[in-house]
Amino acid sequence: MSKAQHIMLGKGLADLPFGATRSEVEAVLGQPDERDEVDLGDEISEAWHYWDLGISLNFDESENFQLTTIEVASPEVTLFGKNVIGMKREEAQAFLDTQKIGPAKQETSRGLAYEDVELTLWFNGGECAEIQFSKM
Predict the structure, then answer these.
(1) Does the pLDDT at position 1 exceed 60?
(2) In-domain check, residue 1
(3) Helix or strand or coil: residue 25?
(4) What is the mean pLDDT of the chain?
(5) The domain containing residue 123 runs over which residues?
(6) What letter does residue 87 receive in the DSSP assignment?
(7) N or C, which terminus of the chain has less Cβ within 10 Å?
(8) Dist. CA 27–CA 4, nearest whole Å
(9) Domain assignment of residue 61, yes or no
(10) Alpha-carbon dihedral sign for residues 60, 48, 18, 88
(11) Which pTM value belongs to this model?
(12) Residues 72-83: pLDDT tens digits?
């Protein structure tokens, strides 16, 4: 997988489509640097972290442990053709408001969610530090 990737809302990253199995992801990215298993109460979610790539992937039990959520922190990853990681909150919101993806909802002081497209931006120090998006 190349570092330069683009987010396709509802579909995944260019090289990692939602619905991919753990074996398929491993064939593209190799072994993760770290794996976590999270008990969500009604199901188990497995997270794979690729720290050098700035990507974390989640596989949920309810989806037969297929890829359901991607979190990216890599500044090379684009959303609608722009590098959003590192953008100021106001700039990111103004840009995304032009993309016709539904209204933004403030998720605490650190997050900005676009629920219509399963997209959340997380901010640290006023700049976008992570983009989280899920299968719709």
Answers:
(1) no
(2) no
(3) helix
(4) 92
(5) 78-134
(6) -
(7) C
(8) 18
(9) yes
(10) positive
(11) 0.92
(12) 999 999 999 999
